[in-house]
């Protein structure tokens, strides 16, 4: 494989320019160059089954899996003084951890995702969107120490997200295990604005950073919850969401199910105007100590004094219960702008004209501009209505979208190991089973030889064909390659570098 094609994994959601050439069409054909970012673990070495792990200590047995599930679930309700659990339960925090670890996957070049577990290291650890997720990692640390190499951080974080959803009654499709931990955060980038980001991933106009970058906005993993560049414009936010979730490979239904399904749980945190304090880069020993509350109080900067995003409130009245109240309430009320204690725009519900409810029946809930956005786009609105009226439809859509979100960087179905792997999904490009009786390769070989000898230009042509077919492989998310022989079909057949090969 050429050096250009062998990318390694870069988790910075949005930032690296894509090294590409005509010989690497699976990268999207973008021209550009970037510094050598290293490859970390050589993922290309990993085989299609768990034989790679034999001797590595990884353990994907049913017994270990069930013990892990039980240990993880016990953490949720074991509130610790260093970070008291909201509502007595860490499950929502853990879903946010798994979402932020996985959701930085970008389809353009397959980089990002939780494989590698780089959220433990800078720069990801210090990404502003990951504020206070260091606490979630600290809560999981005893489990990692207990299981050692039997479970990678990437698998632990993702499985914890699954168990968190399950523990609150949410639907889970399965678990694709087999993530390998990187030894550092070297393959992730600072989100910027910074000189490194400017050099590697320049963005001409902030707010409209372009594909193949994973986000529209410098400094963010996803979209600005306050609206594009902080402007509380729900319609603009809807466009931003479609753009950014599209770069993750999510369609409208997956996007709306994920946002509303995720926000069925938990709350946002913004108890005061002074922020969370220094991040792990500036305060590695005690990052984000908090600045809200009475400095003499044991809950200074934590519990009800937590500052994470700067918004304050919760999306639903039962933040530890899986339901479709998020969608129902979005439709049930009109939404009015207000400000959090940190002066950030958020929205509260008021009665619609002609409503039969009384004022004091209005739930004490809040939405962000990026939630209200789902009402300001025709396709999103139709999905909000569907999910509000049919919980089982939401169950199915959310479970599939969450599995895709958390397995997309793992590549093809055969790469998933463990005892709870879901059936092959479309995004895993499933191939038919190999036939029990393989064709007569000697016969095929001699047929090919006679074609090759029929024209002196054919040998070179067929070498080109094989190269074009195989060199699409990328080690970031294991997609591409000649397995599947997609070079026979559009769009691969039509790529510029493949002109004439269909002959
Ligand atoms: C448009 C996309 C999204 C935006 C802008 C967004 C924004 C936010 C913000 C600002 C918070 C509050 C953080 C805090 O102050 O503690 C939050 C929390 C949360 N988000 Fe999202 N989010 C998005 C999508 C998702 C998705 C797709 C999921 C999962 C499927 C998710 C799951 C959660 C959960 C569970 C919490 C609560 C965490 C807790 O209680 O500690 N979010 N989100």
UniProtKB/TrEMBL annotation:
Reactions it catalyzes: 2 H2O2 = O2 + 2 H2O
Cofactor: heme b
Enzyme type, top EC level: oxidoreductase
Pfam families: peroxidase
Sample GO molecular function, one term: catalase activity
GO BP of this protein: cellular response to hydrogen peroxide; hydrogen peroxide catabolic process
InterPro entries: Catalase_peroxidase (IPR000763), Haem_peroxidase (IPR002016), Haem_peroxidase_sf (IPR010255), Peroxidases_heam-ligand_BS (IPR019793)
EC numbers on record: 1.11.1.6
Keywords: Heme, Hydrogen peroxide, Iron, Metal-binding, Oxidoreductase, Peroxidase, Signal
Domain Plant heme peroxidase family profile: start-end pairs: 113-418
Signal peptide coordinates: 1-22
A GO cellular component annotation in the UniProt record: cytosol
Taxonomy, superkingdom: Eukaryota
PANTHER family named among the record's database cross-references: CATALASE-PEROXIDASE (PTHR30555:SF0), HYDROPEROXIDASE I, BIFUNCTIONAL CATALASE-PEROXIDASE (PTHR30555)
Protein name (Swiss-Prot/TrEMBL): Catalase decomposes hydrogen peroxide to molecular oxygen and water
Organism name: Ectocarpus siliculosus (Brown alga)
């Amino acid at each position: 494989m050429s050096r250009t094609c062998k990318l390694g994994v870069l988790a910075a959601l949005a930032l690296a320019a894509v090294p590409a050439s005509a010989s690497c069409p699976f990268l999207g054909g973008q021209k550009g160059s970037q510094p050598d970012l290293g490859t970390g673990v050589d993922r290309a070495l990993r085989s299609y089954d768990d034989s790679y792990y034999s001797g590595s200590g990884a353990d994907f047995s049913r017994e270990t899996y069930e013990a892990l599930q039980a240990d993880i679930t016990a953490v949720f309700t074991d509130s610790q003084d260093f970070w008291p659990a909201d509502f007595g339960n860490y499950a929502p925090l853990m879903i946010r951890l798994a979402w932020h670890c996985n959701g930085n996957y970008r389809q353009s070049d397959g980089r990002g995702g939780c494989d590698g577990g780089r959220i433990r290291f800078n720069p990801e650890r210090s990404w502003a969107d990951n504020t206070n997720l260091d606490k979630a990692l600290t809560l999981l640390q005893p489990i990692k120490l207990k299981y050692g190499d039997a479970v990678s951080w990437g698998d632990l974080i993702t499985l914890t997200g699954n168990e968190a959803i399950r523990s609150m009654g949410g639907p889970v499709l399965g678990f694709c295990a087999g993530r390998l931990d990187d030894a550092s955060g070297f393959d992730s980038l600072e989100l910027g604005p910074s000189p490194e980001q400017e050099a590697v991933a320049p963005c001409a106009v902030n707010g409209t950073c372009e594909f193949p970058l994973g986000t529209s906005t410098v400094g963010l993993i996803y979209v600005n919850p306050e609206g594009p560049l902080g402007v509380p414009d729900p319609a603009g936010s809807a466009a931003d969401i479609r753009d950014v979730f599209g770069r993750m490979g999510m369609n409208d239904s997956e996007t709306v199910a994920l946002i509303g399904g995720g926000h069925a749980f938990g709350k946002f945190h913004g108890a005061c105007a002074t922020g969370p304090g220094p991040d792990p880069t500036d305060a590695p020993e005690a990052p984000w100590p908090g600045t809200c509350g009475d400095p003499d109080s044991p809950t200074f900067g934590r519990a009800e004094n937590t500052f994470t995003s700067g918004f304050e409130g919760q999306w639903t009245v039962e933040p530890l219960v899986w339901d479709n109240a998020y969608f129902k309430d979005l439709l049930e009320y009109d939404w009015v702008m207000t400000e959090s204690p940190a002066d950030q725009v958020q929205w509260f519900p008021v009665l619609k004209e002609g409503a039969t409810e009384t004022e004091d029946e209005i739930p004490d809930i809040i939405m962000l501009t990026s939630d209200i956005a789902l009402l300001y786009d025709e396709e999103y609105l139709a999905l909000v209505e569907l999910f509000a009226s049919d919980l089982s439809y939401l169950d199915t859509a959310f479970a599939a979208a969450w599995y895709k979100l958390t397995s997309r960087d793992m590549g093809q179905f055969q790469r998933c190991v463990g005892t709870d792997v879901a059936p092959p999904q479309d995004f895993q490009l499933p191939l038919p089973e190999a036939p029990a009786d393989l064709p007569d390769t000697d016969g095929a070989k001699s047929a090919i030889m006679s074609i090759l000898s029929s024209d002196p230009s054919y040998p070179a042509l067929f070498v080109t064909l094989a190269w074009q077919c195989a060199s699409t492989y990328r080690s970031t998310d294991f997609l591409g390659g000649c397995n599947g022989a997609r070079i026979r079909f559009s769009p691969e057949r039509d790529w510029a570098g493949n002109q004439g090969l269909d002959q």
